[in-house]
Design a protein that fits this description.
The chain has about 350 residues and is mainly α. The protein is built from 18 helices and no strands. The termini are far apart. The model is unreliable at about 45-70 and about 75-90 (pLDDT under 50). It comes from Penicillium polonicum. Keywords: DNA-binding, Membrane, Nucleus, Transcription, Transcription regulation, Transmembrane, Transmembrane helix. GO terms for molecular function: DNA binding; DNA-binding transcription activator activity, RNA polymerase II-specific; zinc ion binding.
């Protein structure tokens, strides 16, 4: 019998090469490693002469500890405007950067997010900055996985920051650079949420009070402004919940949807309140932490009503489309869910679709 030819992936991840599988080369985690829940890592070959160029052009700067070589961008006029300042929304203070000096995975993830930001605000150099961002993130993940996996009093702050920044990075990457295939987008979104749940792990074990005593206190205080889960539902969420209750799901699933819609209401309340000095984009980033883990499983199973809720979230994201973190990701999410579910769910999706057409309709 003639052996069927197998097209190899030249730039596939290490795990797929070891298992002799064709890798789809999706960064930072390929589809095979997502489905099998394996550690995904890519080797980045260094181009000839790259190290020498980097040293000569960055002689006055100190690279991140253990960071991979990063090429220098084409010449460009410097810009000090707030819109182009790298990672301006993070407001990272020197006290926070201090944790990165002792944790290479955190420092490299900060640099990776900064490169991702530059790829968005400087579209002419998008490919260059995205490539560097991928390199830095792969190195950060590799460094984190090779370090101690035990959370202790010495590393819990760095791990908390790493989990949060990595979650922000993956959310931005998912929304701003979505996969052309909506199925792939959903897989990437689920993977983002699973990683973001690391924040809960660190916050547990009685360490929340300890975190409040660190330089992170101003950031953590923002969480106190998130409305209570017992807040009454507004008309939009009330109608959505009534529709879902009419589907006849079991009690556990219905409760999961109820908690998810309650988290959705929290986002709507914060956006509607428009508290001076409060950046409501933070509640959008926090939404995956507010929803039950079981809801993410329902998204992974492609449950139609779960995707409808995701479209509602997309409509809320669209209210912040001028932020570099989201761009047109909210519109993509609403349009993709609408096309994926088809005309039979058109009535369910009336509000999110209407929200895209009417500015500030939330």
């Amino acid at each position: 019998m003639v052996r069927r030819t197998h097209k190899k992936s030249r730039n596939g991840c290490i795990e797929c090469k070891r298992r002799h599988m064709k890798c789809d080369e999706k960064r930072p985690i390929c589809s095979n490693c997502i489905s099998s829940q394996r550690h995904c890592e890519f080797l980045e070959p260094m181009r000839i002469g790259q190290s020498r160029n980097v040293r000569s052009e960055t002689a006055t700067a100190s690279p991140a500890v253990g960071s991979p070589a990063v090429t220098s961008p084409p010449a460009q006029e410097p810009s000090n405007s707030p819109e182009t300042a790298p990672v301006n929304m993070l407001h990272v203070e020197l006290d926070i950067l201090r944790y990165g000096i002792g944790a290479p995975y955190l420092m490299n993830e900060l640099l990776s997010l900064s490169s991702l930001h530059l790829s968005i605000v400087r579209p002419g150099q998008r490919d260059f900055y995205r490539h560097n961002s991928t390199q830095l993130q792969s190195h950060a993940l590799s460094s984190f996985n090779s370090s101690s996996s035990q959370i202790n009093d010495e590393n819990y702050v760095a791990i908390f920051l790493f989990a949060g920044i990595l979650g922000l990075h993956m959310l931005c990457e998912t929304l701003v650079y979505p996969d052309n295939d909506f199925e792939g987008f959903l897989d990437q979104f689920v993977q983002y949420v699973v990683l973001h749940y690391g924040v809960r792990t660190v916050a547990g074990g009685g360490r929340w009070q300890l975190l409040q005593q660190t330089a992170l206190k101003p950031m953590l205080d923002l969480g106190a402004r998130i409305p209570s889960e017992n807040e009454s539902l507004g008309p939009v969420c009330h109608v959505l919940l009534d529709r879902i209750k009419g589907l006849g799901n079991n009690e556990t699933t219905t409760k999961t949807y109820e908690q998810t819609i309650q988290a959705l209401q929290s986002v709507i309340t914060v956006i509607d309140s428009q508290v001076p000095g409060y950046n409501s984009s933070g509640i959008l980033i926090a939404w995956p932490i507010l929803v039950p883990r079981e809801y993410i499983d329902l998204v992974a199973q492609r449950k139609c009503e779960a995707l409808v809720i995701l479209a509602y979230f997309g409509a809320l994201v669209d209210t912040h489309k001028h932020s570099w973190v989201f761009c047109d990701g909210g519109k993509y999410l609403v349009d993709s869910v609408t096309q994926y579910l088809g005309p039979q769910w058109e009535e369910w999706l009336h509000w999110p679709r209407q929200s895209l057409m009417v500015p500030n309709s939330v």
